[in-house]
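TODO from last week: model Cobalt transport protein CbiM.
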Amino acid sequence: MSLKQRKLVVLAGAFALAFGIAPVANAMHIMEGYLAPTYCIIWGVLCVPFLVAGFFSIKKTLAEHRKVLVILAIAGAFAFVLSSLKIPSVTGSSSHPTGTGLGAILFGPSAMSIIGIIVLLFQAILLAHGGLTTLGANTFSMAIAGPFLAFGIYKLCRKFNVNKLVSVFLAACLGDLFTYMITSFQLAIAYPSEVGGFMASLTKFMGIFAVTQVPLAIIEGIITAVVMIGLESYAKSELTDLGYFKGGVVNGR
């Protein structure tokens, strides 16, 4: 490991130590036991093809560019730290950033499904943040839906020659918001309102979390752009291998 790579590892470790110790929480990761078994199974099954594609995507990337492993670890640590932090919302709920936009931009959305499920698994076991039975639902919203939209927004912005850091900001911000839209959808399906059914429930859930999630998404976009500036300074070679300076990720994924 080169001196530059060691510095990146130390930086990621310091970041995690400073912010990664979060209190036990049941934030907008859907908590253990909150979904019926049928919904847990359905969301878990829907995640399988994305996880398979993610496994092969990461395997191919690391086989061709082994030194980007450190950047992959940083993307995972970034997602773990940000999604572990909760902000009180209304009616006893809470919101948090997702941190998945960074990995989606650098490694593609499929790879982020693997990083995301690992993050969610550790959070469920170590922090009681989310749950094992709801792992499929949480993975689909945070590690699949959000990253795919973030990646699409980034690619679209770069296609129209939007400033690179502005593209990163928009991708991370909108990817965060889309995660919460999907989570609200999941909850609305599971718990339709007695008056108004699914749409009334969806409106309620989205309204509850919009209060804190909109400013959090903006903050996440800014933080992701700042982290990318740091990576551009200290990991230019690795980002070049990933195709970041050409406007995309390695091998066009």
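Done. Confidence is low (pLDDT under 50) at residues 14-27.
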